[in-house]
Design goal:
The chain is an all-alpha fold. The chain has helices spanning 8-26, 32-36, 44-72, 74-93, 98-160, 163-184, 198-221, 226-248, 262-292, 297-303, 306-318, 325-343, 352-379, 386-413, 418-443. It comes from Streptomyces cyanogenus.
């Protein structure tokens, strides 16, 4: 595929797809009060699952969805994902009971799992080495803007419309995006290596879902409860079983020996660390602005907009420094950690302008580190495994996001009220981010020395699909 194949309409369409998929992770959080008082009368547990079903299915299916897209056609995977996303949104919008709402969220999450790796994989294939860093900066920006759009959209819907309107709006939006993909996006070379691995897919997906379930449910049930320990144990056994199966299989879903690469380990940890801090902030921010500062839901959605500024502007410069990942990633993650520590000092008397400055620091750190980390995952794998690389990277993001919310929630649960718990919660998260940054920087290698092929992976000409 020639390097000039990536046209601006294609780039904008693919980034719009991933933005919409990511926005539904955050949008539901600002609708929780309205859902709780709705005619569905959901219980506390059902509300929790309405929020979590999307994330669990999304993150659990990312790796197999990315690998399957590589093998059977990325454009087809993207269009299928948009169809599933729309079907799930329609199910949620028309739900007459909480179970249908939760099922719709899960179905949309499955669609998002196909959309996200397919978009990045197509960009990698079309951009070529010369434009890859810029393409990854745009894609990463779309991920960040998706979180912001979700907060803003959820806040506006929560204040002025019914919660059903959020899901109903996703149906025509997905249809428009599918039409844009059909028109603007060419088919790319697909991988000819191996065949579907249903056993490996089942083992890995079940293992990731079990681990994510434990992370998300841990704060409510207690980290040392029998239920959570059992789920974590089951997840570890399933992932171990997948590893054994993949090492013995002639055509595994992916070769786990790719993690011998220190660069791949460092970049996946870095992505998880960044989203660990960012989503802990999202979780705390909406409660701080509404419960402590007294903002309305729509104003709360707007008040987090400063996080967009750094994500929108800094990646343009970060792409120029892609050959120096250590200082770029180290500085970016450190800014996230330091910004969280600064935000931990906020209280009811803190001027919003000062709080917004701390959001800008976190935003700048995110915009600086995430493109380099995303590109690091891509270049750690051969080009025909771009979808798998996206799946690994996005799984790390979602796992980090879930863990960030869980850690912040657990820290808050140990305090008498939110106002007194916000500071300790953000200090814990910020400290963890700074400590993890040291590990990430230690494991990174300068660009130009990536491992272009996974162990045992032959290089062959790939058919177009």
């Amino acid at each position: 595929m020639p390097t000039h194949a990536l046209k601006r309409p294609t780039l904008l369409t693919l980034c719009a797809c991933v933005l919409v998929a990511q926005s539904m992770v955050a949008a539901i959080n600002l609708l929780i009060p309205q859902l709780g008082s709705s005619a569905l009368h959901p219980s506390h547990t059902e509300i929790l699952w309405t929020v979590d079903a999307y994330v669990i299915v999304f993150a659990g299916l990312l790796i197999p969805a990315g690998a399957l897209g590589d093998r059977h056609g990325r454009k087809g995977a993207l269009l299928t994902g948009l169809a599933l996303f729309a079907a799930g949104a329609a199910t949620s919008a028309l739900a007459t009971e909480p179970a249908l709402l939760i099922a719709g969220r899960g179905l949309s999450g499955a669609g998002a799992a196909l959309i996200t790796p397919a978009t990045m994989s197509i960009l990698v294939q079309l951009a070529g080495p010369e434009r890859r860093a810029q393409a990854m900066a745009s894609w990463t920006l779309a991920i960040g803007l998706g979180g912001m759009a979700g907060n803003l959209g959820g806040g506006l819907v929560g204040q002025y419309l019914s919660w059903r309107a959020l899901f109903a709006a996703m149906v025509p939006l997905a249809a428009v995006l599918a039409a844009a993909v059909a028109v603007t996006t060419p088919r790319t070379a697909r991988s000819a290596h191996g065949s579907p691995d249903p056993v490996g897919t089942l083992l890995l997906t079940a293992g990731l879902v079990a681990v994510l379930f434990g992370i998300i449910e841990g704060p409510d049930h207690g980290w040392t409860s029998a239920r959570i320990l059992t789920v974590f144990g089951l997840g570890a056994l399933l992932v171990a079983a997948f590893t054994v199966h993949a090492l013995r299989s002639r055509a595994p879903l992916f070769d786990p020996r790719v993690f011998r690469s220190g660069g791949l380990r460092a970049t996946t940890l870095g992505l998880a660390t960044g989203f660990f801090g960012l989503f802990a902030l999202f979780f705390v921010n909406s409660q701080y602005l509404q419960e402590v500062k007294g903002f309305e839901p729509a104003v709360t959605g707007v008040a987090i907009v400063p996080l967009i500024v750094g994500m929108a502007l800094v990646p343009r410069f970060a792409a120029r420094w892609s050959a120096r990942p250590r200082p770029v990633v180290g500085t970016g993650l450190a800014l996230i950690g330091l910004g969280l520590l600064a935000a931990s000092t906020a209280d009811a008397h803190t001027p919003y302008a000062l709080y917004a400055c701390w959001l800008l620091v976190i935003s700048a750190g995110t915009g600086l580190a995430m493109p380099a980390l995303t590109l690091g995952v891509v270049v750690s794998l051969p080009p025909h495994q771009a979808g798998l690389g996206s799946g690994l990277g996005t799984s790390a993001r979602e796992a980090g996001a879930a863990l960030g919310v869980a850690v912040a929630g657990t820290a808050l649960a140990g305090q008498p009220d939110f106002a007194s718990g916000m500071g300790p919660a953000l200090r814990i998260v910020g400290t963890v981010v700074l400590l993890a940054t040291l590990l990430v920087v230690t494991g990174l290698r300068p660009a130009g020395r990536p491992s272009r092929t996974a162990p045992g992976t032959p290089v062959a000409k790939e058919p177009v699909a």
